[in-house]
């Protein structure tokens, strides 16, 4: 995909990163059985830290950029249905991501028993499914529209706000 705008390229890169991370997280969670893994040992400690950081970024800065800056432009260009669909998915991802972040934090502190790990696995696999599907949908629909609809000045302004 040949993207012209800074924001569309950044969205694309962030989606690629989160999809790859979620794939690794899903595979790791699939291996969690009745026992709790040692969350303080690599690769778990690294993976949990990456998931926590990515989730915090996704459900704050990344979603805010889309919701506050890009979805209004979509609506003004007649793409309100897409904006509403993606907004609904953001809400569903937040509903899973919030509790998951708490479980990840507790796991990193060594504060999860077997039942807690089962909850982390369940929430984690749900997040993997929801966020992966969402990011792929945005790759196919939102990113190309953003690239097309932003002029150079708006793109530069959004870029400077986003990276600062």
How is this structure best described in words?
- The structure is a single chain.
- The chain has 164 residues and is mostly helical.
- It has one domain: Four Helix Bundle (Hemerythrin (Met), subunit A) (Up-down Bundle).
- The chain has helices spanning 6-30, 44-76, 80-108, 114-149, 152-163.
- The longest helix has 36 residues, at 114-149.
- The chain starts with 5 loop residues before the first helix and ends with a helix.
- The mean pLDDT is 93.
- Give the overall silhouette: elongated
**Oligomeric state of the chains in view:** single chain
Number of strands: 0
CATH homologous superfamily label:
nmb1532 protein domain like
Please tally the helical runs, counting DSSP H or I stretches of 4 or more residues.
5
The largest sheet, given as strand count, sense and whether it forms a barrel, is: none
User: Helicity range of the residues?
Assistant: over 70%
Beta-strand percentage range:
under 5%
Average per-residue pLDDT, rounded, comes to 93
Labels describing this entry:
single chain; 164 residues; mainly alpha; Four Helix Bundle (Hemerythrin (Met), subunit A); 5 helices; 0% strand
């Amino acid at each position: 995909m040949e993207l012209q705008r800074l924001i569309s390229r950044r969205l694309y890169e962030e989606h690629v990163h989160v999809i790859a991370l979620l794939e690794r997280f899903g595979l790791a969670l699939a291996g969690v059985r009745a026992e709790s893994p040692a969350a303080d040992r690599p690769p778990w400690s690294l993976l949990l830290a990456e998931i926590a950081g990515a989730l915090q970024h996704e459900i704050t800065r990344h979603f805010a950029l889309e919701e506050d800056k890009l979805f209004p432009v979509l609506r003004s260009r007649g793409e309100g249905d897409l904006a509403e669909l993606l907004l609904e998915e953001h809400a569903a991802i937040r509903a899973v991501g919030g509790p998951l972040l708490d479980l990840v934090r507790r796991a990193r502190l060594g504060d999860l028993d077997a039942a807690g790990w089962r909850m982390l696995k369940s929430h984690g696999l749900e997040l993997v499914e929801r966020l992966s599907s969402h990011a792929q949908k945005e790759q196919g629909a939102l990113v190309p529209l953003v690239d097309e609809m932003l002029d150079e000045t708006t793109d530069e302004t959004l870029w400077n706000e986003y990276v600062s």
